[in-house]
Write a structure and sequence with these properties.
The structure is a homodimer of 250-residue chains.
Chain A lengths: L12 H11 L9 E5 H8 L2 E3 L7 H10 L3 H9 L1 E8 L2 E6 L4 E3 L20 E3 L5 H16 L4 E8 L8 E8 L5 E2 L15 E2 L1 H13 L8 E4 L25
Parallel strand pairs in A: 1-7
Antiparallel strand pairs in A: 1-11, 2-6, 3-4, 4-5, 7-8, 9-10
Helix pairs in contact in A: 1-5, 3-4
Chain lengths: 250, 250
């Protein structure tokens, strides 16, 4: 969706989203899903960090050496994580404090500069949002009350994956729609129970939004997904993360 | 897309797709992407296997015991694979001969019965398509020549993933659109090169199609994706599979 400015710390995200939807000539309706990128949310939350003010620990320095990354970035990665998953030259995959497994704790160095940054500051990076599930719920409440409609909100990021190349849109915050959609109770055309039919609804919405967003030359931090049918849900995106003890690849 | 019959072995897939598109009142246009499920393609290819005619090897019997699966299914999984990735009760993850990593070699037991199966036959399972990239290319050529349009074709399946619960649509065959979309050359708003910007276009198209397909009560083996912009490509879906030696989770 066009019309979304590069927001700064303290921006009122509900206001930004409402304006963009209105300026596209649209009104939120029941069943709509608003997908915002984690970057938009992080900027609004002011999750900018000036690397020149980060003091790396000995562990971050050693790890930075091993993977060939700025030890100050590694320091932030470690602070944002509960465990290191894999280390290799150029690669640092961690279990994020939010529960998912992601390279570099999702820390972003592009478009990571706050508005009005001093000329002698930086370089700057942007951390993932503080609590994207809670922020999704807050955004949803605001938008629902303004629009008098039942909607869903997804906070998305682009994640790499084991086994497969390229990034895909992934839900790191959700409110209003079920993260997982369980169709196991249904039966196939011959009456056998359907197998393997819990779909990751949240991630598929994020992937569809990322597909559309990526088509715009300048990127799109906001996508409106229309036409889905879902039962309203209070489950959070953390539901999508496999617990480490149940993960054969942890 | 409605109007797709449960096809049997030898069905002319291009004919099936063309009819469904026409009966929806649509005509294929430049830039359209036709997404067919692997199951539709497998059925058309006649990839049905009668388990009562499968003799499991000693290895399949031992492995079936370990994971708690029918040793005849395990035998087929092993025949379809180049390596076993992970084994646990209820779980058998392999590297498929087609290059990707998938549970149970993607073998499917729902809606897996061929038309006219003898009453005393089966149970039946359905293997993944023989060569989904080649089939995607064939289907694309047929559809392009009939419609005089440049299109893309994706053969999709629903895959589980490490770290995250639920399945997502995944591209296992492609023709006409690039599997990976490389935006690394582009720059962010502050002139820094964009990081981590190779998106898995094929998988995102498959996920978006699966999102839509899953909405229909009876499922949808065919989805038409409109409105994407992409450069025509002859690259195959195998491009999306990380090579084992470059995979930290292999």
């Amino acid at each position: 969706m066009p019309g979304v400015p590069l927001v700064g710390a303290g921006a009122d995200l509900a206001e930004v989203v409402s304006r963009a939807i209105a300026s596209a000539g649209l009104t939120l309706a029941d069943g709509d899903v608003v997908v915002v990128t984690s970057k938009l949310l992080s900027r609004a939350e002011g999750r900018f960090v000036d690397l020149s003010r980060v003091i790396p620990s000995d562990r971050a320095i050693a790890l930075g050496d091993e993977v060939g990354k700025d030890p100050r970035v590694v320091e932030l990665v470690l602070r944002e994580s509960t465990a290191v998953s894999r280390v290799a030259p150029g690669v640092l995959v961690v279990r994020h404090r939010l529960g998912f497994v992601v390279a570099n704790a999702g820390i972003d160095a592009s478009n990571a500069e706050p508005a009005g940054a001093a000329a002698n500051s930086g370089p700057w990076v942007l951390l993932l949002p503080e609590a994207p599930d809670a922020s999704a719920a807050t955004l949803r409440r605001r938008l629902e009350s303004d629009a008098r409609a039942r909607i869903g909100v997804v906070v998305s990021d682009s994640f790499g994956r084991p086994f497969r190349l390229g990034t895909v849109g992934t839900a790191i915050g959700m409110s209003g729609l079920p993260p997982l959609w369980d169709r196991r109770g249904e039966r196939d055309l011959f009456g056998r129970p359907l197998e393997q039919t819990i779909t990751a609804l949240g991630d598929q919405v994020a992937a569809a939004a990322d597909l559309v967003a990526g088509q715009a030359a300048e990127g799109r931090p906001l996508v409106l997904v229309r036409g889905l049918t879902f039962d309203s849900s209070e489950q959070e995106a953390t539901t999508l993360s496999r617990r480490p003890e149940e993960d054969l690849y942890a």
